[in-house]
Amino acid sequence: MKKIGLLLLVLSSSVVCAESRLDTVLKKGILTVCTTGDYKPYTYETAKDQYEGIDISMAESLAKSLGVTVNWVKTTWKTLTPDFLKGECDIAMGGISVTLERQKIAFFSDRLDVDGKIPLVRCEDKDKYQTIEQINQPSVRVIEPKGGTNERFANAYLPKVNLTLSPDNMGIFKQLVDKQYDVMITDTSEALYQQKRNPTLCAINPRQPMQYSEKAYMLPKGDVTWKLYVDQWLHLSNQTGERQKVTSQWLGDY
Predict the structure, then answer these.
(1) DSSP annotation of 169
(2) So what CATH class is 117-203?
């Protein structure tokens, strides 16, 4: 059934690439990866042009499978789509959620994980912010990174809150700890990662997310050859346990 689906994808693609990104990457010897560098545990910039995280390790694995090196292109959640559309990146990686808006302009790899939105709060307040109804109050101070799916969730489901948009995703967690804000809505994986490393923060109902979402790698629209390669590499990394080993280093048994 999967082979039939892939065949239909090839036959139905409206864009015929004169040369696939697969060929281009192999000729140049470089895999160019867009990433934000501000979303642990997936991508974090430790120094200029130096990154770590689950998807950073996976990008290096993809490059190794191709026999090439990685060139990192830093982007932001707000500029991810326009940066990707410039055509400078072969793939975008770093905890990217699959949305219909993004699907309009790009291909996605096979699904990596299911990872819905949940609240991240101070543990002392965990009983106060269990539901959307409890959070969606004018007195509740919510902070989200500017751009991306967290901001869109807040705009759609939390119209009454006192919402602040931050250009610094990594700085949000200290602001929660310091009681400058009350709630951050984020993906389950990020909330669990921050909870694991900061005992004063609690991920609320991680097994019952407020919204369903999936994560995948973003690829150039219409390039079926490149997508098929990435999907097969991903399939093999799952079957060999490579991706689970990388994920466990950051999230434990999640």
Answers:
(1) G
(2) alpha beta
